[in-house]
Amino acid sequence: MPILAANWKMYKTITEAEEWLRAVVGRPELKRAEVVVFPPLTALHALRGRSRGLGLGAQDVGWAAEGAFTGMVSAPQLRDAGCGYALVAHSERRRYAGEDDRMAARKIASLWQAGLIPVYCVGEDAAERAAGQGEARLRAQVDTALDGLGDELGGRLVIAYEPVWAIGSGTPATPDQAGEALSLIRERVEGRCGGAAAARLSLLYGGSTSPASARGFMEQPIIDGLLVGSASLDANSFLAMLEVMVHA
Ligand code: PGA
């Protein structure tokens, strides 16, 4: 089944989140895809219990299970609030909150321990790309996160290739560029964690995707799904993407 993940970032009031949900819940296409919404934490409680056919996720997670960490929310707390997933090291967290690959490893481990599915975000920025360092950056992001995790994947892992230059720019990577980056990532994970890891790994592309570009990405055999920001905010545009993905 294709994976369609909606990252709402710091958008939507509770009322707006509920309106979106009303437009989406009950659609038959939900049975043919793994659909996950990452709302702001403030809307989680309102969506929980009404999100039939949809998974819920958090946009970040603390690395410890509990403790004196003001402002953080832990993986067990997220599970308690109805989350099955969490984003880890989204580029906006890396940029504005100083997250790095080592922190990502701790967060991934903590999510696995609580039984949640991490969606680890990686991708090079424009300067790294211009300097021909894109692949090296991806390798480092994957290796450092995996180094902290032991030899086996401790649970299901989703990795999203989100080139920073594509996010919010209106210009996505091409399907071929995304496919190449994700092939490198898959090789890296399998090389490090062995063939059994393959079955536990899903790969997404994210960055300025839209209903118009979704099909091209889904035609790449290596791509399991999309992590969508702005095009997920409007329920109709989100449903249009879902429609394309279940028929691709
Ligand atoms: P975008 O965001 O689709 O608005 O580019 C994607 C993301 O940041 O996950």
Briefly, what is this?
The chain has 248 residues and is α/β, with parallel strands linked by helices. The protein is built from 10 helices and 8 strands.
Question: What report would you give on this structure?
Answer:
With 248 residues, this protein is of the alpha/beta class. The chain has a single domain, classed as TIM Barrel. The chain contains 10 helices and 8 strands. The chain has an 8-stranded parallel beta barrel, surrounded by 6 helices. The termini are close together. 2-phosphoglycolic acid binds at residues 7, 162, 167-168, 206-209, 227-231.
Distinct ligands, ions and cofactors found in the model: 2-phosphoglycolic acid
Give the CATH class: Alpha Beta
CATH architecture: Alpha-Beta Barrel
CATH topology: TIM Barrel
Structural class: alpha/beta
What percent of residues are in strands?
15-25%
Count of distinct strands? 8
Radius of gyration: 17 Å
Overall number of domains? 1
Residues in helices, as a percent range: 40-55%
- Enumerate how many helices there are, as a single number: 10
Q: What does the largest sheet look like?
A: 8 strands, parallel, barrel
Identify the strand order in the major beta sheet: 1-2-3-4-5-6-7-8
Q: Give the termini separation.
A: 11 Å
Residue stretches low in confidence (pLDDT < 50, at least 5 long) are: none
- In CATH terms, the superfamily is Aldolase class I
Mean pLDDT: 95
* Outline: globular
